[in-house]
Design goal:
single chain; alpha/beta; five-stranded parallel beta sheet; 12 strands; binds 3'-deoxy-guanosine-5'-triphosphate; binds magnesium ion; diguanylate cyclase
Protein backbone atom coordinates (compact mmCIF):
# COMPACT_ATOMS: atom_id res chain seq x y z
CA UNK A 1 0.00 0.00 0.00
CA UNK A 2 1.27 3.46 -0.82
CA UNK A 3 1.21 5.93 2.04
CA UNK A 4 -0.96 8.96 1.12
CA UNK A 5 2.03 11.23 1.54
CA UNK A 6 4.11 9.12 -0.86
CA UNK A 7 1.21 9.11 -3.25
CA UNK A 8 1.19 12.90 -3.31
CA UNK A 9 4.90 12.86 -4.03
CA UNK A 10 4.40 10.32 -6.77
CA UNK A 11 1.70 12.41 -8.41
CA UNK A 12 3.90 15.49 -8.11
CA UNK A 13 6.76 13.65 -9.72
CA UNK A 14 4.63 12.38 -12.58
CA UNK A 15 3.26 15.87 -13.12
CA UNK A 16 6.76 17.27 -13.23
CA UNK A 17 7.84 14.61 -15.67
CA UNK A 18 5.06 15.46 -18.05
CA UNK A 19 4.65 19.17 -17.37
CA UNK A 20 8.28 20.15 -17.03
CA UNK A 21 8.10 22.57 -19.90
CA UNK A 22 9.51 26.02 -19.07
CA UNK A 23 7.07 28.91 -18.72
CA UNK A 24 6.30 30.26 -22.15
CA UNK A 25 6.12 34.05 -22.35
CA UNK A 26 2.78 35.50 -23.44
CA UNK A 27 2.55 36.39 -27.12
CA UNK A 28 0.91 39.73 -27.81
CA UNK A 29 0.05 41.16 -31.21
CA UNK A 30 -0.17 44.94 -31.15
CA UNK A 31 -2.23 46.70 -33.81
CA UNK A 32 -1.96 50.45 -34.11
CA UNK A 33 -1.75 52.68 -37.16
CA UNK A 34 0.85 54.74 -35.32
CA UNK A 35 4.09 52.84 -35.47
CA UNK A 36 5.70 54.86 -32.67
CA UNK A 37 2.83 54.24 -30.24
CA UNK A 38 2.77 50.53 -31.11
CA UNK A 39 6.53 50.28 -30.68
CA UNK A 40 6.37 51.99 -27.31
CA UNK A 41 3.63 49.63 -26.12
CA UNK A 42 5.63 46.68 -27.43
CA UNK A 43 8.70 47.83 -25.56
CA UNK A 44 6.80 48.00 -22.26
CA UNK A 45 5.45 44.46 -22.75
CA UNK A 46 8.80 43.07 -23.87
CA UNK A 47 10.44 44.50 -20.79
CA UNK A 48 7.91 42.48 -18.80
CA UNK A 49 9.11 39.35 -20.63
CA UNK A 50 6.41 39.05 -23.27
CA UNK A 51 6.91 38.32 -26.95
CA UNK A 52 5.36 40.96 -29.20
CA UNK A 53 4.72 41.70 -32.82
CA UNK A 54 3.62 45.07 -34.15
CA UNK A 55 1.21 45.51 -37.03
CA UNK A 56 0.26 48.92 -38.38
CA UNK A 57 -2.05 47.64 -41.14
CA UNK A 58 -5.26 46.09 -39.75
CA UNK A 59 -6.08 44.64 -43.19
CA UNK A 60 -3.46 41.90 -42.85
CA UNK A 61 -4.53 41.10 -39.29
CA UNK A 62 -5.88 37.62 -39.97
CA UNK A 63 -2.70 36.61 -41.73
CA UNK A 64 -0.58 38.07 -38.92
CA UNK A 65 -2.60 36.08 -36.35
CA UNK A 66 -2.12 32.85 -38.31
CA UNK A 67 1.63 33.45 -38.53
CA UNK A 68 2.37 34.82 -35.09
CA UNK A 69 -0.17 32.81 -33.07
CA UNK A 70 -0.76 35.48 -30.43
CA UNK A 71 -2.51 34.80 -27.14
CA UNK A 72 -3.80 38.33 -26.97
CA UNK A 73 -4.51 41.18 -29.36
CA UNK A 74 -3.96 44.74 -28.25
CA UNK A 75 -5.89 46.89 -30.69
CA UNK A 76 -6.11 50.61 -31.26
CA UNK A 77 -9.73 51.81 -31.62
CA UNK A 78 -9.16 54.34 -34.36
CA UNK A 79 -7.22 53.50 -37.47
CA UNK A 80 -7.77 54.86 -40.98
CA UNK A 81 -8.22 51.46 -42.68
CA UNK A 82 -10.75 50.04 -40.25
CA UNK A 83 -11.74 50.66 -36.65
CA UNK A 84 -10.76 48.33 -33.82
CA UNK A 85 -14.29 47.08 -33.30
CA UNK A 86 -14.61 46.26 -37.00
CA UNK A 87 -11.37 44.30 -36.76
CA UNK A 88 -12.70 42.50 -33.64
CA UNK A 89 -15.87 41.55 -35.47
CA UNK A 90 -13.95 39.96 -38.36
CA UNK A 91 -11.70 38.06 -35.95
CA UNK A 92 -14.65 36.73 -33.98
CA UNK A 93 -16.03 35.19 -37.16
CA UNK A 94 -13.02 32.88 -37.55
CA UNK A 95 -13.56 29.53 -35.84
CA UNK A 96 -10.06 29.23 -34.46
CA UNK A 97 -10.00 32.85 -33.25
CA UNK A 98 -13.44 33.02 -31.68
CA UNK A 99 -12.01 33.09 -28.17
CA UNK A 100 -8.77 35.00 -28.81
CA UNK A 101 -8.70 37.87 -26.26
CA UNK A 102 -9.01 41.32 -27.78
CA UNK A 103 -8.04 44.25 -25.61
CA UNK A 104 -8.66 47.76 -26.86
CA UNK A 105 -6.12 50.41 -26.10
CA UNK A 106 -7.40 53.86 -26.95
CA UNK A 107 -7.67 57.47 -25.96
CA UNK A 108 -11.45 57.11 -26.18
CA UNK A 109 -12.94 58.09 -22.83
CA UNK A 110 -16.62 58.01 -23.80
CA UNK A 111 -17.98 55.10 -21.74
CA UNK A 112 -20.79 54.29 -24.18
CA UNK A 113 -18.29 53.97 -27.04
CA UNK A 114 -16.09 51.76 -24.87
CA UNK A 115 -19.04 49.52 -24.05
CA UNK A 116 -20.04 49.32 -27.69
CA UNK A 117 -16.52 48.21 -28.60
CA UNK A 118 -16.68 45.50 -25.97
CA UNK A 119 -20.06 44.35 -27.19
CA UNK A 120 -18.55 43.97 -30.67
CA UNK A 121 -15.98 41.51 -29.36
CA UNK A 122 -13.53 43.24 -27.04
CA UNK A 123 -12.60 41.60 -23.73
CA UNK A 124 -11.23 44.68 -22.08
CA UNK A 125 -10.84 48.38 -22.72
CA UNK A 126 -7.76 50.24 -21.58
CA UNK A 127 -7.52 54.00 -21.90
CA UNK A 128 -4.43 55.90 -22.96
CA UNK A 129 -2.33 57.25 -21.44
CA UNK A 130 -1.79 54.13 -19.39
CA UNK A 131 0.77 53.41 -16.70
CA UNK A 132 3.20 50.68 -17.78
CA UNK A 133 2.44 48.49 -14.73
CA UNK A 134 -1.30 48.74 -15.35
CA UNK A 135 -0.81 47.77 -18.99
CA UNK A 136 1.40 44.79 -18.13
CA UNK A 137 -0.91 43.63 -15.34
CA UNK A 138 -4.08 43.92 -17.45
CA UNK A 139 -2.54 42.06 -20.37
CA UNK A 140 -1.21 39.34 -18.05
CA UNK A 141 -4.59 38.77 -16.38
CA UNK A 142 -6.42 38.38 -19.67
CA UNK A 143 -3.72 36.27 -21.37
CA UNK A 144 -3.42 33.98 -18.36
CA UNK A 145 -7.15 33.28 -18.34
CA UNK A 146 -7.10 32.56 -22.06
CA UNK A 147 -4.18 30.16 -21.68
CA UNK A 148 -5.97 28.23 -18.93
CA UNK A 149 -9.16 28.01 -20.97
CA UNK A 150 -7.30 26.91 -24.05
CA UNK A 151 -5.43 24.23 -22.14
CA UNK A 152 -8.75 22.85 -20.93
CA UNK A 153 -10.32 23.03 -24.38
CA UNK A 154 -7.42 21.47 -26.25
CA UNK A 155 -6.59 18.63 -23.88
CA UNK A 156 -8.49 15.45 -23.36
CA UNK A 157 -9.69 14.98 -19.78
CA UNK A 158 -8.76 11.31 -19.38
CA UNK A 159 -5.25 11.41 -20.82
CA UNK A 160 -4.14 15.04 -21.01
CA UNK A 161 -3.26 14.53 -24.68
CA UNK A 162 -4.52 16.86 -27.41
CA UNK A 163 -8.15 16.41 -28.35
CA UNK A 164 -9.05 15.13 -31.78
CA UNK A 165 -9.96 18.56 -33.13
CA UNK A 166 -6.94 20.33 -31.70
CA UNK A 167 -4.61 17.62 -32.95
CA UNK A 168 -6.26 18.07 -36.36
CA UNK A 169 -5.45 21.79 -36.22
CA UNK A 170 -1.81 21.06 -35.38
CA UNK A 171 -1.65 18.57 -38.23
CA UNK A 172 -3.02 21.16 -40.68
CA UNK A 173 -0.48 23.67 -39.42
CA UNK A 174 2.49 21.31 -39.75
CA UNK A 175 1.45 20.22 -43.24
CA UNK A 176 0.98 23.88 -44.29
CA UNK A 177 4.45 24.62 -42.96
CA UNK A 178 5.79 21.68 -44.99
CA UNK A 179 4.16 23.06 -48.16
CA UNK A 180 6.20 26.23 -47.65
CA UNK A 181 9.46 24.61 -46.59
CA UNK A 182 9.48 20.86 -47.13
CA UNK A 183 11.11 18.72 -44.45
CA UNK A 184 10.60 15.25 -43.10
CA UNK A 185 7.30 14.78 -41.25
CA UNK A 186 5.79 11.54 -40.01
CA UNK A 187 2.36 10.70 -38.66
CA UNK A 188 1.62 7.60 -36.60
CA UNK A 189 -1.77 6.19 -35.66
CA UNK A 190 -1.96 3.76 -32.73
CA UNK A 191 -4.89 1.59 -31.73
CA UNK A 192 -5.05 -0.76 -28.73
CA UNK A 193 -5.64 -4.36 -29.77
CA UNK A 194 -8.87 -6.07 -28.81
CA UNK A 195 -9.66 -3.31 -26.40
CA UNK A 196 -13.32 -4.23 -26.34
CA UNK A 197 -12.33 -7.52 -24.70
CA UNK A 198 -10.57 -5.61 -21.89
CA UNK A 199 -13.69 -3.57 -21.25
CA UNK A 200 -15.90 -6.64 -21.47
CA UNK A 201 -13.71 -8.78 -19.19
CA UNK A 202 -12.68 -6.27 -16.55
CA UNK A 203 -15.02 -3.32 -16.86
CA UNK A 204 -14.86 0.21 -18.16
CA UNK A 205 -12.76 1.72 -15.31
CA UNK A 206 -10.01 -0.83 -15.95
CA UNK A 207 -10.26 0.00 -19.66
CA UNK A 208 -9.80 3.65 -18.78
CA UNK A 209 -6.68 2.78 -16.79
CA UNK A 210 -5.25 0.90 -19.75
CA UNK A 211 -5.89 3.92 -21.99
CA UNK A 212 -4.14 6.13 -19.45
CA UNK A 213 -1.16 3.79 -19.16
CA UNK A 214 -0.51 4.01 -22.90
CA UNK A 215 -0.95 7.78 -22.92
CA UNK A 216 1.50 8.09 -20.01
CA UNK A 217 4.04 6.01 -21.87
CA UNK A 218 3.53 8.10 -24.99
CA UNK A 219 4.16 11.25 -22.98
CA UNK A 220 7.29 9.90 -21.33
CA UNK A 221 8.84 8.60 -24.53
CA UNK A 222 7.58 10.69 -27.40
CA UNK A 223 6.47 14.07 -26.12
CA UNK A 224 9.85 15.67 -26.76
CA UNK A 225 9.77 14.50 -30.39
CA UNK A 226 6.33 15.69 -31.39
CA UNK A 227 2.65 16.21 -30.70
CA UNK A 228 0.42 13.62 -29.11
CA UNK A 229 -3.30 13.33 -29.61
CA UNK A 230 -6.07 11.10 -28.35
CA UNK A 231 -7.74 10.47 -31.66
CA UNK A 232 -10.66 8.44 -30.38
CA UNK A 233 -11.51 6.09 -27.53
CA UNK A 234 -8.43 3.84 -27.60
CA UNK A 235 -6.79 5.45 -30.59
CA UNK A 236 -3.83 7.79 -30.48
CA UNK A 237 -2.00 9.90 -33.02
CA UNK A 238 1.59 11.08 -32.97
CA UNK A 239 2.90 13.83 -35.23
CA UNK A 240 6.66 13.75 -35.61
CA UNK A 241 8.26 16.74 -37.37
CA UNK A 242 11.74 16.39 -38.83
CA UNK A 243 11.45 12.64 -38.53
CA UNK A 244 11.88 10.14 -41.35
CA UNK A 245 9.59 7.16 -41.80
CA UNK A 246 12.34 4.80 -40.62
CA UNK A 247 13.06 6.73 -37.41
CA UNK A 248 9.35 7.19 -36.68
CA UNK A 249 8.77 3.46 -37.10
CA UNK A 250 11.72 2.68 -34.82
CA UNK A 251 10.37 4.99 -32.10
CA UNK A 252 6.85 3.62 -32.29
CA UNK A 253 8.14 0.06 -32.33
CA UNK A 254 10.30 0.69 -29.25
CA UNK A 255 7.17 2.01 -27.56
CA UNK A 256 5.22 -1.06 -28.69
CA UNK A 257 7.82 -3.39 -27.17
CA UNK A 258 7.86 -1.50 -23.88
CA UNK A 259 4.08 -1.29 -23.74
CA UNK A 260 3.49 -5.00 -24.24
CA UNK A 261 5.70 -5.68 -21.17
CA UNK A 262 3.54 -3.49 -18.96
CA UNK A 263 1.42 -5.44 -16.51
CA UNK A 264 -2.10 -4.28 -15.84
CA UNK A 265 -4.20 -5.44 -12.94
CA UNK A 266 -7.90 -5.99 -12.51
CA UNK A 267 -8.47 -7.21 -8.97
CA UNK A 268 -6.42 -10.42 -8.72
CA UNK A 269 -5.95 -10.74 -12.46
CA UNK A 270 -2.76 -9.57 -14.14
CA UNK A 271 -2.88 -9.06 -17.88
CA UNK A 272 -0.97 -7.47 -20.74
CA UNK A 273 -2.15 -5.26 -23.55
CA UNK A 274 -0.75 -4.54 -27.01
CA UNK A 275 -1.33 -1.99 -29.73
CA UNK A 276 -1.00 -1.85 -33.49
CA UNK A 277 0.30 1.18 -35.34
CA UNK A 278 0.52 2.61 -38.82
CA UNK A 279 3.10 5.20 -39.80
CA UNK A 280 3.12 7.42 -42.88
CA UNK A 281 5.62 9.97 -44.11
CA UNK A 282 4.61 13.24 -45.72
CA UNK A 283 5.52 13.57 -49.38
CA UNK A 284 5.58 16.85 -51.36
CA UNK A 285 2.08 17.86 -52.40
CA UNK A 286 0.34 15.71 -49.77
CA UNK A 287 -2.55 17.28 -47.85
CA UNK A 288 -3.19 16.69 -44.15
CA UNK A 289 -6.10 14.39 -44.88
CA UNK A 290 -4.05 12.39 -47.39
CA UNK A 291 -1.37 11.97 -44.75
CA UNK A 292 -3.83 10.76 -42.10
CA UNK A 293 -5.46 8.44 -44.62
CA UNK A 294 -2.05 6.92 -45.38
CA UNK A 295 -1.36 6.39 -41.66
CA UNK A 296 -4.84 4.90 -41.23
CA UNK A 297 -4.26 2.47 -44.09
CA UNK A 298 -0.93 1.43 -42.57
CA UNK A 299 -2.71 0.84 -39.25
CA UNK A 300 -5.27 -1.29 -41.05
CA UNK A 301 -2.44 -3.40 -42.50
CA UNK A 302 -0.97 -3.80 -38.99
CA UNK A 303 -4.33 -5.08 -37.73
CA UNK A 304 -4.75 -7.38 -40.74
CA UNK A 305 -1.20 -8.66 -40.31
CA UNK A 306 -2.03 -10.01 -36.86
CA UNK A 307 -1.91 -6.93 -34.56
CA UNK A 308 0.85 -5.99 -32.09
CA UNK A 309 2.99 -4.62 -34.92
CA UNK A 310 3.94 -1.38 -36.65
CA UNK A 311 3.43 -1.00 -40.41
CA UNK A 312 4.78 1.77 -42.62
P1 LIG B 1 -9.13 -3.91 -32.63
O1 LIG B 1 -8.02 -4.78 -32.19
O2 LIG B 1 -9.58 -4.27 -34.02
O3 LIG B 1 -8.79 -2.47 -32.52
O4 LIG B 1 -10.38 -4.20 -31.70
P2 LIG B 1 -10.94 -3.29 -30.53
O5 LIG B 1 -11.81 -4.14 -29.69
O6 LIG B 1 -9.83 -2.61 -29.83
O7 LIG B 1 -11.71 -2.19 -31.35
P3 LIG B 1 -13.16 -1.58 -31.28
O8 LIG B 1 -13.09 -0.32 -32.06
O9 LIG B 1 -14.15 -2.60 -31.73
O10 LIG B 1 -13.45 -1.27 -29.77
C1 LIG B 1 -13.02 -0.13 -29.15
C2 LIG B 1 -13.81 -0.02 -27.87
O11 LIG B 1 -13.32 1.04 -27.04
C3 LIG B 1 -15.26 0.28 -28.06
C4 LIG B 1 -15.62 1.31 -27.00
O12 LIG B 1 -16.68 0.86 -26.18
C5 LIG B 1 -14.37 1.42 -26.17
N1 LIG B 1 -14.11 2.77 -25.68
C6 LIG B 1 -14.13 3.93 -26.38
N2 LIG B 1 -13.78 4.97 -25.60
C7 LIG B 1 -13.52 4.46 -24.36
C8 LIG B 1 -13.11 5.04 -23.12
O13 LIG B 1 -12.89 6.24 -22.97
N3 LIG B 1 -12.96 4.20 -22.05
C9 LIG B 1 -13.16 2.85 -22.15
N4 LIG B 1 -12.98 2.10 -21.07
N5 LIG B 1 -13.57 2.29 -23.32
C10 LIG B 1 -13.74 3.05 -24.40
MG1 LIG C 1 -4.93 55.36 -34.17
MG1 LIG D 1 -10.35 1.57 -32.42
MG1 LIG E 1 -8.71 -1.20 -30.89
Amino acid sequence: LIHPYDLTQLVDRLDRQTDNLPFEPYRVLIVDDSHSIAEHTGKVLRQAGMVTRVETDPLILLQAIEEFEPELLLVDMYMPECTGDEAAKVIRQQDNMASLPIVFLSGETDISKQLLARRKGGDDFLTKPIQPQVLVESVTITAERYRTLRRLMCHDGLTGLLTHSHFGEQLLREVARNQREPQALALAMLDIDHFKRINDSYGHPVGDRVIRSLSRMLQMRLRRFGQLGRYGGEEFAVLLPETSLEVAMQRIDALRQAYMQLQHTAGEVVFNSTFSAGVAAWKPGMTASELSLAADQALYRAKQGGRNQVCG
